[in-house]
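The authors assume throughout that readers already know how a fold can be written as discrete tokens. What matters is that the chain and its backbone geometry are given together, residue for residue. A single example would do more here than another paragraph of explanation. For illustration, here is how one protein appears when written out as sequence plus structure tokens.
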Amino acid sequence: MPTTVLMNEHIDLKIDHSTKLLAERAAAIYGQDLTTYIYSLIRRNAAETLSQEQKIILTNQQYDNFFTSLFIR
């Protein structure tokens, strides 16, 4: 059974006319209104951004140095 999400928050967004037209055209490709399209972009991209920022990427040498430093006091 699908979960209903209460949509009671608002975002006031000022953009130029050509960007709005571009977004409306893209939304139409997916058969979405502009609000639904922007919402889906935020849900997908924000989660991806947060996921990427929570990762620490190390080279093998950096990992070895870090791991070694845990045991040397």
Summary: The chain has a mean pLDDT of 92.
